[in-house]
Amino acid sequence: MKITRLGIDKALQGKGISHQILDFIKYWTFIEHKPACRLLILDAYNELKQINMYQKNDFIFLSDNDKDDKHRFMYFDLLRLQ
């Protein structure tokens, strides 16, 4: 499953809402719906703030081939929730 855009209003940034949203997506997808897919994927803006947020939520870079690109491809393996 692909997460296309995750944006938080500037007035609410820094309050942990993005972490709550990502946790909800992970558990809702895995526990409630048991999809026939294994990965959550996303194209993160290649900016330190966004990359750090996704890494804190256990998303991993697919490779280093895109480290100089505008976006970085990242994924979360839903089997880690077992």
Explain the overall architecture:
It is a single chain. Helix content is 30%, strand content 22%. It is an alpha+beta fold. The chain has one domain: Aminopeptidase. It is globular, with a radius of gyration of 13 Å.
Report the CATH C-level class.
Alpha Beta
Report the radius of gyration as a whole number of Å: 13 Å
Adjacency order of strands in the biggest sheet:
1-2-4-3
Give the overall shape, derived from the CA principal axes.
Answer: globular
CATH superfamily: Gcn5-related N-acetyltransferase (GNAT)
Short key terms for the protein model shown above:
82 residues, alpha+beta, Aminopeptidase, 4-stranded mixed beta sheet, 2 helices, globular
Briefly characterize the structure:
This protein is an alpha+beta fold.
Task: Annotate the secondary structure layout.
Elements: E1 2-3, H1 17-32, E2 39-45, H2 48-56, E3 60-61, E4 71-77
